[in-house]
Fold this sequence. Notes:
This protein is of the alpha+beta class.
Amino acid sequence: MVRARAGSRYHSEVRSACIQKQCMYGASKQGSPARILSKILLICTMLLAGCASNPQSATSPFFPAESSGEYGDDISYWDGARSAGKPRIIIDLEQQRAYFYKGGEVVGVSVVSTGREGYDTPSGEFRVTQKDLTHVSSIYGDYVDRSGQVVVENVNVTENPRPPGTVFRGAPMPYFLRIQGGVGMHAGYLPGYPASHGCIRLPKEMAIHFFQNAPIGTPVVIHQESAPNYASDAPIGDTYVPTTPMMER
């Protein structure tokens, strides 16, 4: 009887020791609280880094964090494939918008960047007088060396002397629609405010649509304030006469 009780107590002690070892093994397998905390901090750091993965959206006020529009903004669009009617372009300098009409229907809207202070885009009624797919400026551009490296950038050849050993390389203005003198519409950089030398810059995809759908002679109205109706078919003439010659923009 004594031997049986001793054996039972021995088995009980062995079972308790095994349970303690299993608990210790489980704790070591899961890791110490310090290791768990370090893993949590690492995951948080990765998530925060992912939120700032777009350097433009993190540093520039002119680039939205997310671009939901097809053309990189929430305003520009084109829906002119099934529309008919005479084309007409309206440019609103105050809102920095360009509207493309076919007949009485707006089929396209684009954000634009027009002339900055001192190089104001002229207001008035015009027509498209020339189309040039690969137009380059004859006034604004860079002075480059024989290898093509830029020596002096953003020059005006009428004001900035050309350094010896350099040549002038005009600024590209693709999908150019000339409307008055050296002023026209073309694809270009849009910082979010008027920044050109007088031209009307559009996003590339919108410039392509305007270029493809505006034949020579297309009426173009440029105004400073919103007007009630631009959809009429009333004739438009070249009524604006600039006081000074316009240069390439």
